Description:
- The complex is a heterodimer of chains A (298) and B (251).
- Chain A is built from 13 helices and two strands; from the N terminus they run ααααααββααααααα.
- Chain A is an all-alpha fold and 298 residues long.
- The longest helix of chain A is centred in the last third of the chain and has 27 residues, at 187-213.
- The radius of gyration of chain A is 19 Å and the shape is globular.
- Chain B has a domain at 2-88 and 163-249: P-loop containing nucleotide triphosphate hydrolases (Rossmann fold), CATH 3.40.50.300.
- Chain B is built from nine helices and ten strands.
- At the A-B interface, helix 7, helix 8 and helix 9 of A face helix 1, helix 2, strand 6 and helix 3 of B.
Amino acid sequence: MTNMIEILTSDYGVHLAILVSLYLILAQSLNLTVGLGQLFNLAHVASYAVGAYATALLSTEHSASFTVCVAVSISLCAAFATLLGAISLRLTTDYFAIGTLAFSAVVSALLINWKSVTHGVLGIPGIPRPELLGIDFYDNGNFLALIGIFAVITQAILYCLYNSPCGRSLRALAEFERAAASLGKNTRRTRNIAFCVSSAFAGLAGSFFSYYLNYIDPSSFGLGEMVFILTIVIVGSPGSFGGVIGATLFLVLLPEPLRFLDISSTYLGPMRQLLHALILFGVVWWKRDKLFPQRRTV
Amino acid sequence: MLELSDIFVSFRSAHVLNGISCSVRGGETVGVIGPNGSGKTTLFNCISGFAPCRKGTITLRGERIDHLEPYLRAQRGLGRVFQNFGIFREMSLLENIQLALESRRDTSAGFLPWSKRTRETIERSMTFLKDVGLDGKAREKASSLSGGQMRLLEIVRTLALGSDLFLLDEPTAGVSPRMKEDIAQSIRNLQSMGKTVLIIEHDITFIQKFCDRIVVLEEGRVVLDDTPERVRSDERLQEIYFGRDDRSARP
Ligand SMILES: Nc1ncnc2c1ncn2[C@@H]1O[C@H](COP(=O)(O)OP(=O)(O)OP(=O)(O)O)[C@@H](O)[C@H]1O
Ligand SMILES: [Mg+2]
């Protein structure tokens, strides 16, 4: 027990808390599209990458301030989502899954091949921590406070949004689009808003990711990451606010005890992915009928 | 109020509506009957904008609405009650009504759950639920309701939306005989509020009590359009429902 307390207050504990905060932002914002709107959004990690790269490039090459980097990362992601939504949310929602998948593929290709900007697989090193109010954010404890505040604000905004008229319309049209339209809901606009907001928060998370690691490369933004965030939403039950918070804690912290077993670090990564895959498989099988309520049409 | 002229609707090669013309005056209640597959629901879908018409015009209060998206038609006063229940089962009864109120121009919906405007919407929703005696279940999921209660909820939700033209698609299908009377009561209630009502129904004895007119559809055409008494006694009705040879049977 004393061992546990030591871990939680150590650097390692702070690191875990930062990870949890980061994934709270990522997962809850994905829940807005995948859960509430039942939109199969596969572009979340692509937006996360756009946010991360925007912050990395601005802060290394233009020494832009924290506020500017975060604002640009968020706006850029919102802009991309608006554009992508305008194209792929016009038709049925199946096209949306394909559209977002295509967007992710384009972003991954650019991260690797547009070397003059993204430095390809070498990535971008030397990203400074934020400079704000004279606080030393190279200290992880202070950084945790910063990202923690943003994570809490994100949860609060999304909680209000879930229960706001817009969130209600989103849930309604996911369940029965025609009935929602018959209640005067502009279904296309509602979906676009949801996608845009979802993406903007992914951009925010990306910004913090860059600041925290000080170094980013394309390997952090692969399909595996998308699957991991989707797993959080599915384990937490799509559309459930509290469920996704619980699932984030559970899935981010679950593989950690593996570290203390005597396993070589080359196996650690794959073992963790295997564990996540097994959990995802288990939950999908267990809740196969209830995961997404049946969509209705007339 | 509503003017349909020469409406044609087809899905691929299936011609479902073949030149429907009909006009409904404000405050009138019109029954729509016809055998299964005669295009009744498609006619409603066409009016609400879910089935595109290949030809013809739809006019609501003098304004052409046939090019408008469904949600814009709803905002112009068109209310729809679906054949297979249009309520949101995953939401509470309260939220079902809130959704309708939040679409109205005269209600400003609040973003924060605890804001004054949100509380006002909830209070107003409760009064609508009280009118149909469902206020006791306000916070329960709508999926916990019986078929009849779901229909009542959907009708009162459309009322909360502020619609003045109601399209009711088989409001008594899948409803227990006892609840049928409650639904009849809520339709009479709509009439007393001066709403215009179109009802699709199989049970002609049920609707003739409140309809001013009954329109009979067959294979996407209007066969009869007359008072309930005259439609009932018209032999074409028997022909449509029971075939030409069996004159002794009555609906
Ligand atoms: N979206 C569609 N695509 C193809 N065919 C359709 C579509 N909607 C309706 N139809 C066809 O149009 C015909 C009329 O259907 P509709 O639902 O309007 O009948 P109805 O009069 O409401 O029947 P019921 O009494 O069973 O409700 C049916 O043959 C149906 O198969
Ligand atoms: Mg029908």
